[in-house]
Structure formats: structure tokens, C-alpha cells
Amino acid sequence: MKNITINLEKTIDNLRPKYEKFLSNLIRIPSPRGKESEAQNLVRKNMEALGLEIAEIYSRCDKESINLCGVVEGTERNTHRSLVLNAHCDVTPVDAPETWSHPPYSGKIEDGLIFGRGSVDDKAGIAVILSVAEAIKEQGFCLKGDLLIQSVIDDETSGYGSRALVDAGFNGDGVIICDGTWPWRIIHAHLGQLFINVRIKGEPVAACVESKGCNPIYIALEFITKLRKLFEQFNKNHPNFESIQNPFFCNVGSLHSGEWHGSVPAYAELKIQ
Q1: pLDDT tens digit sequence for 64-112
Q2: Distances (CA, A) of 5 to 9, 10, 17, 71
Q3: Continuous H helices in the chain
Q4: Cβ-defined contacts of 252-256 (< 8 Å, 24+)
Q5: pTM as predicted
Q6: Cis bond leading into 167, ω under 30°?
Q7: Pick from 57, 133, 236, 251: most CB atoms within 10 A?
Q8: Which parts of the chain register pLDDT below 50?
Q9: Are 220 and 205 in contact (CB under 8 A)?
């Protein structure tokens, strides 16, 4: 077993330049929600080159929502356990690209670093699990159970990508999710998340008589202040979840209101995670 591990590590290390280039190319393809197919097609081509048996499952009602599962078949798959290696191809939207030191989708390799949206979370995860699959095949290892290599979407929004594969029967006895995080850290407990949209109705009037209206922005600010105090109390009462300190969080990701500064807005909308 020791020799097998050493040989596998050496092979993966030898494959590093290839997958650094693959990762750089993958980063150059923007893949926010609704525009994932081009990036997933690149992943599929790599899976095909490895000779994997590939399934393509959609998680939404559009042609962009591709989820991939490549299978390395085990020699005794009916009697031995399977393992899933899972990573996601979708990325979060880019905010203020002019503030970035490198363009968000540059994929530039400089001083041992790769720059671009998704370079860690989580296109690097895809590069890692594909390199593992190639190393296993290159070494000629015969796995007794199936190894499932999954590249999914919708991770940043709903989790429906992984769910779509599970619902289609592409599950395993064990799962390792190679998602972007700090080096040498394994996440063994995960917080649940909710996405909440809040719409506050105002009473629009002209700016010069704003005291006669009701400004939803002021209500939104009061609402946010109370919400933050509530979550501070949650964390005070429940300081830890597994090893996670201050497990309750509340992030107001966007606040939109009004069309121009000459009137009190008719509404305010908040998007919260």
C-alpha cells in the first residue's frame, strides 16, 4: 500500500503542469449561473480523453445546466463500495472588476499562483479530481469499487447540481467534496444556508415634500440593524457548531431602491444570505 501511495503521488505531481494549464483555460471561461455549459464542455472533453464513462444530467430547464459524472468502473462493483469525488464548475458573479489586480477571468499564471474567478472555488477542485482519475488510470490500478468523478453546477446558488446527479442514481457509499477552502483543512460539518428576498413598500412623493411620504430605505436600514443584533444574540447563545465559531451569519448582499434622487422610492429590495 505504501508503494502504491508513493507511485500515485509521483504520478499526480508529474501531471501537475498539464492540469495547471487545464485550470488556467477553465478559469478563462466565465461560468456564472446560467452560463455554465462552455466550461462544462471543456471538462467533458477531458473526461472523454481519460476514457471515462460519462453521464450528462440537467438540473434546470435549460441547456446550460449541465452536470457531469465520469465513472471509473470497479472490477467487483456489485460487491465493493463506491467513492464519489465531487467539485463544482459554477462561479459567483464578479463585483467591481476594475478593483482586481488581474482581470477576473485572466487565468494568468504568475509566480506560482493562478489568478481569476474560480481559481480556488472551485475550478481547482475539478483539476484535482481529474488528475486523480488520470493518475489511477496511468498507474493501471484496478479498483474493485466504482470511482465517480463529478463536475456539477448550481453549487453557489442551490445545490441542485449535486442533487440532480444523486436523483439520477449517481451516488456513492462515500463522498469527498473538493471545494475551495484554506489549505490543509477538511470540512467535516457544514452550515445550512437560506437565500431570502425582502421587499419593503414605501410611499413615493417628490423629494421636496419627502416628509409626507414613507422612505423604504430608512425602513430597510432599521431592519438590517435589528437583524444583525438578532444574529449577534444567536451566536452568543450558541457559540459553536462542531468546530465552527460564530456559526450564525447574515449577509445583506444587495440593497436596491429607487430610480432617481428626486423622489422618495416606491420600494426597497434586499437580498440576504
Answers
A1: 899 999 999 999 999 999 999 999 999 999 999 999 999 999 999 999 9
A2: 6, 9, 20, 21
A3: 2-14, 16-27, 37-49, 123-139, 160-167, 216-237
A4: 252/224, 252/227, 255/217, 255/220
A5: 0.87
A6: no
A7: 133
A8: none
A9: no
